[in-house]
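C-alpha cells for HTH-type transcriptional regulator. Go.
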Amino acid sequence: MKKWSSDEGKCPISYTLSVVGGRWKWLILYKLFQNKILRYGEIKRHIPSITHKMLSQQLKELEAEKLVYRKEYHQIPPKVEYSLTEKGETLIPILSLMSEWGEKNRIDVVTNIHN
C-alpha cells in the first residue's frame, strides 16, 4: 500500500493524510482522547483487531509527528504510557465531527438493512 505523499500538489489535505492517514491512526488518537493516558496493552485491548506489529509502528509514527507523547518509566517490569500531545489535541474537533458523522450514518445503514 502506497503511503500518502505530504507534497502531493502542495495540498493541505494531502499533508494531513500523510500524517494521520490509514486505518488505525485516527482510532488510536480517539482512544487516547477518550482515556487521556493508556499503556500499550490497554490500547491493544481497546483495538483488538490491530496486530502488535501494526500498533507499535503506528504509535512510533504518531510519536514522530509529535501527535502522541510516549512516557517511559525506567523500572522492572518496564512501563510505558501514551497520551496526546498539545498538537495531537488539535485533531479532537475533527475526531468529534468524524464520530458524529459515523453515528448518524451508521444508524442510517442499520435502519436501511432492517427495512
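The radius of gyration is 16 Å.
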